[in-house]
Known about the structure:
The structure holds two protein chains of two kinds.
Chain A: E1 8-19, E2 22-33, E3 37-41, H1 48-55, E4 63-68, E5 71-76, E6 84-85, H2 91-97, E7 98-101, H3 113-123, H4 129-142, H5 158-170, E8 176-180, H6 188-203, E9 207-211, H7 215-221, E10 224-229, E11 232-237, H8 239-244, H9 249-262
Helix pairs in contact in A: 3-4, 3-5, 4-5, 5-6
Chain B: H1 8-12, H2 14-47, H3 51-65, H4 69-84, H5 90-115, H6 119-127, H7 132-162, H8 174-185, H9 188-221
Helix pairs in contact in B: 2-3, 2-5, 2-8, 3-5, 4-5, 5-7, 6-7, 7-9, 8-9
Amino acid sequence: MTVMVGAEVLRAEGLHKSFGTLPVLRGIDLAVHRGEMVCIIGASGSGKSTLLRCLNLLEEPTSGRIIFEGNTVARRDDPNGRLVVSPQHPAIQLRTQVGMVFQHFNLWPHMDALGNVAAPLRFVKRLSRREAELMAAEILEDVGLAEKLHAFPAHLSGGQQQRVAIARALVMKPKVMLFDEVTSALDPELVGEVLAVMRKLAAEGMTMVVVTHEMLFARDVGDRIVFIDQGLIHEEGAPGDILVNPVHRRTREFLSRFLEVRL
Amino acid sequence: MTYHFDFQPLATYYRGFAGGIEVTLFLSVASVALAAIMGLVVALGRLSRNRILSSVCGAYIEFLRNTPVLVQLVWIYYCLPIVIGVNLPGIQSAIIGLGLAESAYIAEIIRAGILAIPRGQVEAARALGFSPIPILHHVVLPQAVRIMIPPFLNSYVSLLKATALVAIIAVPDLMYVAQRVTAITFRPIEILTGAAVMYFLITYPIVLGVRVLERRVRLALA
């Protein structure tokens, strides 16, 4: 297991997010370093997914900052003020460098696997179709889908669809990958193939932020575990500490409830 | 009944009927083209995050859908010239009237088609750095159009039938010709039955086509 090594890549500072009057994030500070895998755990509704979605600005923070490679990408100091998005680093540019994989894959059903993966290269990076498809085919091979280039999502298993979705994010050569409960919608026997791809990515040094309920995976592959409850980070540290000897009462409660369910 | 049927006038005046059919088809195609353009604009406005724009487009749709097309047609033919000071020939009034009425329905069809695309697909595109126009072009519309075609054609059939209303503003469509021939020959049963059959022969093939398409769309989405 690697200790946190590289420079800081992505940081959230004083992040608040409310939906209407419902506060979901209540002041999150989180820094992600190069090559690190940060696993975010917590109960449903604790704000894990919202945090992840704020990191690439799919959700606009109510207040706080998002800092990418030292540049403030978005800032809102006053909850009623406007979100100030840096003109040099607008959200769209941030998103080309921060990949995201979703719980429900969200593949485009009218394109085959190759078309899905080539699309961002063609329509965001403006590469030619030929070039885009060559690169897409290569990445699909990396995730073990060389045989399925021309299969449409409806003809792929959940695990295969999720691997296509991972390939679609990877093809943009992102500096950080965000994973939002990517195995939660999968049949149990299909979870392994997706985790294997993520394990391989981690071994290759990809910077990853992973919201997950797979505690064993978090323990084995994660560099740092962050426990979120009611919109706040209650505890963070090495997997061995957090998962084995949690200090905070709420972390202990969560983990014990979780282990009961698992057993 | 001692009535003696005589369908001869249908043959005698076949040129008149052919001309009427031509006007009916031209009217329906011209108005549906106008409706498609207006409908797309209004649908996008309705879906806009701008509340004022969305409300204005909503009001447009509701007003046109909840007033009789006959009233709209007659209003455009008789009242619009007074309001804007320009005299419109019957055929142009008819295209504008039918086109606007139809655009309200088309706008709802387009809006429903766009809303039928799961949000997650749009989010995935946004998360990859897609801008709004490429999302519409490459993710939403290719799927939405498939969903829209059957209701669009159904609505076109309704429009085709509604064109018969324009006879009242002296546009020489199929219904107008039928009324004229009736007045000349005093054969309303034969002539109007003949006209009904002609409308049926135009619309029914389209309805059959829609059924085939609907089945295909269902299969494609399954």
